[in-house]
Amino acid sequence: MGTRRELHGLIFSGALLLLLLAQPLLVFSATPPFACDPANPSTRNYGFCQTTLPIDKRAADLISRLTLEEKIQQLGHIAPAIPRLGLPNYKWWSEALHGVSNWGRGIRFNGTITSATSFPQVIVSAASFNPDLWYRIGQAIGVEARAIYNVGQAEGLTFWSPNVNIFRDPRWGRGQETPGEDPVTASKYAVAFVRGLQGDSPTGERKSEQLMTSACCKHYTAYDLDNWKTHSRYTYNAVVTAQDMEDTYQPPFKSCVQEGRVTCVMCSYNRVNGVPTCADFNLLTLQARNSWGLDGYIASDCGAVDLISGAIHYAKSPEEAVADVLKSGMDLDCSDFVQKHAGSAVQQGILSQGDIDRALFNILSLRIRLGHFNGNPLQLPAGNIPPSQVCSKEHHDLALEAAKAGIVLLKNAANLLPLARSKVTSLGVIGPSANNGYLLIGNYNGPPCTGSTPLGELRNYVNDTRSVQGCNKVACDAATINEVILLARSVDQVVLFMGLDQDHEREGLDRIDLVLPGLQRSVITKAAKYAKRPVILVLLTGGPVDITFAKDDPRIGAILWAGYPGEAGALAIAQVLFGEHNPGGKLPVTWYPQEFTSVPMTDMRMRADPATGYPGRSYRFYTGKPVYEFGYGISFTSYSYEFEAEEAVTSIYLNSSLTPRTTANSHILSYDIASLGSDTCGNLKFSATVGVKNQGSMAGKHPVLLFSRWSSSEHGRPIKQLVGFQSVHLEAGESTKVVFPLSPCEHLSRATDDGTRVLDKGSHYLVVGQKEHEIRIIS
């Protein structure tokens, strides 16, 4: 989402920028603002204050009491107070991507609470492939948000997180905010995190009529380019096929709404096939609200409505732009553009009060569900959450658990790791990221509760730890090679901390290439050349980098990817290096070679096109040779898999009366999922059981990834696709059985050219590791 507007280098609407800069410093009261005070005789009898009435009746009552101008002013992200009705102001824009953040307008750390737990960046947590962990992170953030609200340091409980866009291109600066390139992973992340943040149970039951907070899945949809070469997200038109929409871009949003029951969807800056997403009736109303059943509101990205009549010239005037978005189904504008122009749109007859009332109903109903019109929030559910719940030991321990779970071991030649403290008498730490804890946090962050650096943590393990930075900064446009060589020669073991930072990848900044910046490679290779034994390379990046040179260099014995691991990340890295944690993370995104940069970032196609040399995108369609593939990650131990033959399904029978369709220019026979119907699809469900054994001598937590594939990848079929994953903890030598519930209509189906989902007749294969199990669809 284009929420926080960094002033360094981001294109932004001048009017909105002035609006943000003009906001006064806020002084918060000790209690949160609220409406419907029982002690106020002038408001106690209002219908919208009556908690015994249904929410829709309460919202309708409040709308009926507002003037047109009051209605219009509630449609912006800073909704002003209405004193005559006892309504305080409300700020819709807050962020909670991987911890409660001060990006946005609703949260301030200027009182009793001055920080919040900073969990690993989302791409790191995603590498755990552990929905239970994702849920608990969301839950902890929701609790901290309520605690901040309860002490009066928040003017809103609507958090515009998570970012569930597909990490389509490795150069995307915001890929770090996402769960990666796979639609199934992104979907499961969305569901788990949203349930936790909103206060629901892990299985989706709503514990209370009152939400803990409101989450928002963004950026809807096909948004994955910020500022690449001459292309800006503000004017970009994403040309997307129906096939790619169905099986790549839309699934995370569909799951977020239908399973996660998210209460907000945010439309994006970009156009999709020529239409701005915030003005697309098909996307907003027909799909998100009517088809998927969104029960909540639709917000614009910040300044997106302005662009519709401005930079992209889709509408002829500001009034037309406002009319377009409200009639299409958008409810809330993250700016003051609608507040300024809706009145004149009504006067011109292109916008009705009914359109305004529809939007108001959605946003006011959500505020009622948050408890804002139920009296003093400190006397309501969640009102007793104290400040001590923020930065608690429990949450810090969870941040450490998440950081450890997300670290991916990419190389470990000759079992260089784990290091033995008794055998490492001196340690050399090199790199611009080694002694800067802030570089571990990632973007969309709040002030962390605590922090440390990799260098500081490693000194707790080896007293004689020496360090040189090697590079003047992460960009490494100057290097102290002689210092690096002298240090490498003088110590038992060298650990290098290299990678990227927010000056290389972030909102508003996409990368041009995939290699390490500046002279980092030279520093690494020189250290490796002169070190006494193979060196260890720790990569701190959000997106993938081409480190083929390090992968192939025998003098670089081990490689760890730690991403941006959050406030506990430095300790997590140290614990992995010294064997106090056995890494089990798996890459949630393909690591492409540098040559992939010849592919235009603007090409939205997922599938390869051999006729033109287009290689495709993601593990599902990429036909090139990756540096590291999606799902790759090794451990200090080894695991083996077997499909349980006694419980295995080998054939699935369809009713012979069903008529298959034929794929054009193909022998493939398929059945439309829609024509099969929910009853038939339900009857086809089965389970696959995988035996997993820890074959090594060290306990570990291990994600088991189950894929499916077809007998060929012709006619747009994926090479393979992830259908499920579970995380298991196994002691050395221990084995277990993992059961995957599967639905052929969901997990074995594919999207055709026109976006129709079909189930192919014939052979399908379940794949885990190097093991396969064939299942035949028969009629």
Automatic annotation (TrEMBL):
InterPro entries: BXL, Fn3-like, GH, Glyco_hydro_3_C, Glyco_hydro_3_C_sf, Glyco_hydro_3_N, Glyco_hydro_3_N_sf, Ig-like_fold. Keywords: Glycoprotein, Glycosidase, Hydrolase, Secreted, Signal. This is (wild Malaysian banana) hypothetical protein. One of its GO terms (biological process) is xylan catabolic process. SUPFAM superfamilies: (Trans)glycosidases (SSF51445), Beta-D-glucan exohydrolase, C-terminal domain (SSF52279). GO terms for cellular component: extracellular region. It comes from Musa acuminata subsp. malaccensis (Wild banana). It is found in: Secreted. Coiled coil: none annotated.
